[in-house]
# Entry
Amino acid sequence: MRMLQRLFGRTDRGTAPQLYAGVVTRGRAPHWYTDGAVPDTVDGRFDMIAAILCMVLLRLEIEPAGIAPSTAVAECFIDDMDGQLREIGIGDIIVGKHIGRMMGMLGGRLGAYRTGLAEGSLAPALVRNLYRGEAPSPAALTHVEARLRAFREALAAMPIERVIAGDLPE
# Structure
């Protein structure tokens, strides 16, 4: 297997699979879908996992030690989305286009959440990206924004090594 990885350029992802598993676990927490009114659909779950992943990527990009792990966890995301698309019946020919679109969506969300955090409000980015333009109740939006901010603040307070290891806050 290592020979094939070297031949095709795949590198050891280190702890990225554990980190990505933590992202998915946090993104699947029931409170997002009940208290936060995130649609419990394929798209809603993608959007919530992408939001959590963005918070993690924003934390990783702050320190040089986080750059390589951020690339590796993004690769795990791509692999997961590829598998999910195939599981729901998307064929080989079209999967690449879907993955390209998803990566574009992730990049757009990363920029929107970065801007929202810098400007003091994630609400516009959440309505546009997490709720796909359909604003939820004020209570649901407040819940999601507060929990994402708390997650982001907890990540910021953690040593980068713990984040890289996948030891994510609740």
